[in-house]
Amino acid sequence: MCNQTVSLISAEVERNGICTVVIQLLREPAVKVRPPRALLVPFRHGYPLDAPEAPDRQHQVIEACLQMLESAALTAPALREYKASY
Description:
alpha/beta
């Protein structure tokens, strides 16, 4: 799905009271559209959670998203860079 479209949908979902985090592969759409919360990942297109056969690394990305939701000090819009720990 288009990075820009996902960001726009995320903003609309947030306006209806549901917190979201977008996993972004491209910085430019996130900066332009400014979704409420976006995690910028360094992976190639089609692999927002990293390699298909790497569940531990995929869990790390999901954990980073959940941490963004838990952060009480995080105000929207927020863009964070994902730092791989492997």
